[in-house]
Design a protein that fits this description.
Layout lengths: L12 H7 L4 H6 L11 H8 L3 H13 L12 H29 L8 H34 L8 H6 L6 H13 L5 H47 L1
Helix pairs in contact: 5-6, 5-9, 6-8, 8-9
Length: 233
């Protein structure tokens, strides 16, 4: 649930987690080690080499659902690094974890539909991998070039116009199970469904960071570069 509280560098990390424990997977994507003690956000970010301003921007956006203002002069690479870590989190941990739970929940009495459910999930993951690969191979290198002052034929509006919500098809699998999959092991399937619901929300948040933070940051940089280049002519 969105919170009205805005966290700052002087707030303790434990207070952040107690406000909403759903932020824990996000902290893991910043590669923050557990054992927070009484450290503040600023202290922990400093020790881990994380940009505090970027950390707070993402955390406060995810927890409140709003952005008061994008920090002037903040490097977009802070956001790119977080998104890259997020891709790794989904591909190497979250998706295999959900798949294992889903397979464990399948009932032998549904031998006809079980392969369809697994294939549906695998096809979905293949789609997400393709989406992530486009960002890793095209979008992020473009942003790196832009921040280094190198020119490119690409622009962030191309990404914005073709940016699909990768979590959408996960809703289809969820609805198939909810409506049609009776099982003798409901506790396992309920557990798998909770994973799917959580992952769906997580992917939506991932897309929100791209749409509401990364894209506006890059668009602003592009405008500044265009103004600078025209001034030189």
């Amino acid at each position: 649930m969105p919170t009205a509280r805005r966290f700052s560098a002087t707030d303790r990390v434990t207070d952040l987690v107690m406000e909403d424990y759903n932020i824990l997977p996000v902290l893991s994507r910043f590669s923050l080690p557990l054992g927070f003690d009484n450290k503040t956000i600023g202290q922990l970010c400093g020790e881990a080499g994380i940009d505090t301003e970027g950390f707070l921007l993402i955390i406060n956006f995810l927890m409140s659902g709003r952005i008061d203002e994008l920090p002037a002069g903040m490097s977009p690479m802070v956001i790119v690094d977080f998104l890259r870590n997020s891709h790794d989190y989904f591909i190497t941990y979250k998706f295999p974890h959900i798949r294992a739970n889903l397979i464990a929940a399948l009932d032998e009495s549904h031998s006809d539909i079980n392969p369809i459910i697994v294939k549906f999930y695998d096809d979905y993951i293949a789609q997400v991998r393709k989406h992530f690969a486009y960002e890793e191979e095209t979008v992020f290198p473009y942003i790196e070039a832009l921040t280094s002052g190198r020119s490119s034929e690409y622009n962030i509006d191309i990404f914005r116009r073709h940016h699909d919500e990768v979590g959408d098809r996960l809703a289809e699998l969820k609805n198939i199970i909810l409506r049609y999959y009776a099982t003798s092991m409901p506790y396992r399937m309920y557990d798998a469904l909770v994973d799917i619901f959580n992952c769906e929300e997580d992917l939506e948040s991932h897309a929100d960071i791209e749409n509401h933070i990364l894209i506006p940051l890059i668009a602003s940089m592009e405008r500044r570069n265009d103004t600078h280049n025209h001034a030189k002519i």
